[in-house]
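Continued from yesterday's entry.
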Amino acid sequence: MLDELITFIAGDGDDLDSQAARDAACDVLDEVFGPADSWADLNAVTVSRDALPQLLETFLAQYVYNRVPVVAERLSQIADPQALRRADDEMRETIQLMVSLRIPDDPFSVDWSGPEGCTIAEDSIALTYEALAGMEDDIS
């Protein structure tokens, strides 16, 4: 049943975009349901309408994180576990910021499966690449 929900939200995972979306959906569902390990626990979880914009932003940020292969490449070069954790946290914060800049004040006004939703996602990815290039320039 959960796999069907994720497939409905994110597709079947047969390409990079769909796989990134599936992974992001899993991350958001994990955040929402947390340690729930029974149907009763799952049923007890409620999400208010007010919480949906933050969940959407989290989903989009996780999607971008999973969708930008440079992130994994950079992180794989760090051998020190503490440095890796710090770098990963920094990347996630940067991506969260790039996404929050693109999310409209009223995210319910967007057709997320249409051109506007795709443009927001693509712009978030482009902003992330720009931020990564800026970080690289700072290191050089």
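--- second protein ---
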Amino acid sequence: MERITFSQIPKGMLEKLMGIENYLKETSIDFQLLELMRLRVAQINKCAYCIDMHYKELKASGETELRLSTISVWNETSFFTKKEKAVLRFTEALTEISEKDISSEIFNALTKYFNTDEICNLTFAIAQLNTWTRLVRTFKFTAGHYEVKK
């Protein structure tokens, strides 16, 4: 059961969060890559609502079932590009930053594929994703009802 519903969230809070989402849409981050990041953050943070949402978004955008079912073990597969692996490694490290620092190896791998602005935007996107999962898990939004907008 939800602790707090969407309609109970203070006026302006969702609008501010959606403003960040709109900013991220305007960046050069590829939608598919952003959704892979979102799904991985949701898995790490055990957010069923977010896993449902981002799985469905990826599925609707043409992502394969094989990659969707193996993203939690991406580093043990050949199904992800080196660029995606660099981003997923960074995504995991930033999401779990309380456990260890972001190593130079992880950060420098990003510089092979992204410029400074893009790395800043990737970092901002991961921080935003972690914000969403923490809110959704605290409020206990019900998973399974998300529908992809067409």
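DSSP finds seven helices and no strands in the chain. The chain has one domain: 12-139. Will compare against the first tomorrow.
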